[in-house]
Amino acid sequence: MTGTAISAVIFDLDGCLVDSEPHSLEAISAELRAAGLRNASADSIRAAYLGVSMTDICKDITRQSGLTLPPDFVDRVETRLFQVYAEKLRPIEGAFRLLDRLEAAGLPVAIATGGSLRRMHETLRLGGLAPRFEGRGFSAEQVARGKPAPDLFLRAARELDVTPVRCAVLEDSPHGVAGACEAGMRAVGFVGGSHLDPIREAHRAVLAAAGARPVIDSLEDAFEALTGP
């Protein structure tokens, strides 16, 4: 991808622009325990499903454990999550400065998240980012296959009217990095979210192995990593 001019930037939302993943992992594991999966923990969910859509998480847990999750499981997780978000959701340090720089450079931006449309809109609203992504937020609910498939990234590029090879993606999960690479986009890994505090160096290697070039710790470094040669 070196030498290709970047014309648009696509962001994963949770763990890249808002420091939401610790709350999300706790909400999912708490609802799984309530549903009968007693050994569910935030750490185990992070290790297995970071960046995976809730639909695919539910399918895989049912397949592996035989546990039938309640039909309103995702709604329960999101309701629990939004209650926490209202008090504790914060943007990642440097998120607004990065978006300002991209806007000043004339580069359109979009969201490509494995979360539901409802969760995406509420996260953007509570995180103070909604005006930045009006009409440019895309969810795994809108495509046939979620990450690590390229479908969601290709949908975002199509809506931005930018060819995939001229898109850069910021991702904190190997599933997202793999999907961006499969879409033919530049994938930049991000390990600055607090959910990665215990495993930052190991996760850096995981993202690099998935195809991220480079992997960065801070959004202060993201403009150059996303748009540079």
Task: Set out the fold topology.
Blueprint lengths: L7 E4 L9 H15 L6 H8 L4 H12 L7 H16 L6 H10 L4 E5 L3 H10 L10 E3 L11 H10 L6 E5 L2 H9 L3 E5 L9 H11 L4 E2 L5 H6 L2
Task: Quickly list its features.
10 helices; 2 domains; Rossmann fold; DNA polymerase, domain 1; alpha/beta; 229 residues
Structural features, described:
With 229 residues, this protein is an alpha/beta fold. The protein has two domains: 8-19 and 90-227, HAD superfamily/HAD-like (Rossmann fold, 3-Layer(aba) Sandwich), CATH 3.40.50; 21-88, DNA polymerase, domain 1. 47% of the residues lie in helices and 10% in strands. It contains ten helices and six strands; from the N terminus they run βαααααβαβαβαβαβα. It has helices spanning 21-35, 42-49, 54-65, 73-88, 95-104, 117-126, 151-160, 174-182, 200-210, 222-227; strands spanning 8-11, 109-113, 137-139, 167-171, 186-190, 215-216. Strands 3-2-1-4-5-6 form a six-stranded parallel beta sheet, sandwiched between helices. Strand 5 (186-190), helix 9 (200-210) and strand 6 form a beta-alpha-beta unit. Helix 1 (21-35) runs antiparallel to helix 4, helix 4 runs parallel beside helix 6 and helix 8 packs parallel to helix 9 (200-210). The termini are close together. The mean pLDDT is 94.
Supply the helix-strand structural class: alpha/beta
Q: CATH topology of the largest domain, which one? A: Rossmann fold
**Unreliable spans:** none
Number of helices: 10
DSSP, total strands: 6
Q: Report mean pLDDT, rounded to a whole number.
A: 94
CATH architecture group name of the largest domain: 3-Layer(aba) Sandwich
Q: Taking Cα atoms only, what radius of gyration do you get, to the nearest Å?
A: 17 Å
Q: Shape, please?
A: globular
- Distance between the ends: 8 Å
Order of helices and strands: EHHHHHEHEHEHEHEH
User: Which superfamily, in CATH terms, is the homologous superfamily of the largest domain?
Assistant: HAD superfamily/HAD-like
